[in-house]
Amino acid sequence: MKYTAVALLSLASAAMAFESTVPCIMWSPKNYVDTNVKASDQFVISQTDASSTIMSSLSSDICSAKVIALINQPELHSNDFTRSGFEDAFTQLKEHSTQASSHSQIEYITNGVDVNEIAKMIASQCDSAISILDPSTVSADDFAKQEAPIVAVVPLPAANDATKLKANDASLGQFIDAVEGKFQNDYAVIYTSSVAKTSCHESTQSLHRRAPAPVNNLPIFAKYQLFTPGVFMVLGVVFLFMFIAGTGITWLVGIQTPVRFEAKQKKN
């Protein structure tokens, strides 16, 4: 029984760990993503190791790209790609990533990816600036031709249903069309999430129980329940114990013992 409980707790912990993870998909029409590099020997990558793991998945000539886009889709999980009813929610993502010349994917990263940190690391490596672009209004005119690559952080709205994810996917397609209209296929994309989904357990803990409204101006017996079946049971047990104890003490006190023994009379 003890080992079963430990096993169940381990399974529950593992399930919660997988629930609070996010994926990371990297692709490029050129060889800006190193497909030969292993993401990690661990099945689940911690948030602290995510930045270095993603950077190691980029090729050595990543700074030759004209645009390096970091797409941030909050509250994304790997299971969303295969969930029933979400078949059309990632059409643009699947089309561009699967048709890319280089592609890499990390399925499970705990608690989200620090997108801003990765953008700073790429900008520092390539000696470029960071731009924050709105995918719904971006156009080819927003990209200026320059020697250093454009490190673009593209935040998408948080989405928990297929309709919103499909709208965000359309914005992703619009952004990629704008990039390709300016630089053809000379770009790389990192698609991930900075925030993991909130588990049901955490949502339940965030709820507060509402206390009953105070009742005033009522008699004491109506305001407080003083006499309950439990109280009567306790009183009955106490009275029974006192009766038994009193009877026993009375019997003990009533026992008479001789003060001394009389000596036997001697026969003449």
From TrEMBL:
Spans through the membrane: 231-254
Protein's cellular compartments: Endoplasmic reticulum membrane
Family designation: Belongs to the BIG1 family.
This protein's record includes keyword Signal: yes
Source species of the chain: Mucor plumbeus
CC annotations in GO: endoplasmic reticulum membrane
Domain V-type proton ATPase subunit S1/VOA1 transmembrane, first and last residues per copy: 225-262
Protein name: Protein BIG1
Presence of the UniProt keyword Transmembrane in the record: yes
Residues of the signal peptide: 1-17
Lineage: Eukaryota, Fungi, Fungi incertae sedis, Mucoromycota, Mucoromycotina
